[in-house]
Amino acid sequence: MNELMDRANLGDEERNRYKKEMEEKDAEIERLKIHKSEAEYEARQLRYQMNQLNDININDEMPSRGVLIRLLRDHNTSNMSINTVYKLKKMGIIDEDGNINENTIIDMLKSYYGG
Questions:
Q1: How many helices and strands in the chain, by DSSP H and E?
Q2: Mind listing the pLDDT tens digit for each residue in 35-66?
Q3: Phi/psi at 3 (nearest 5 deg)?
Q4: Whole-angstrom Cα distance, residue 110 to residue 115?
């Protein structure tokens, strides 16, 4: 870098200014790297929590009211584990083609959760 500044025939004041700017940019890059690392960690934590919320504990008899409502609303099982989808199929909530059986969900919500 000093060699480039020498070739550019910069005076001491300009050279110091550019050097200070470069140091500030380097520090900013380091801060951004740290921020990126923290954001990636937080994203991993959130994905883990989402998976925990979307999965049904295999030992539980019934899916939670929230899981049933999300299935009814979104028809989305992509965030659920294979074991959970298997259990939902056994319960008749998901058919063999992977379609959500809304009537079964509504009946379960009425029977087990009062509506």
A1: 5, 0
A2: 999 999 999 998 888 777 666 554 557 888 88
A3: -65, -40
A4: 4
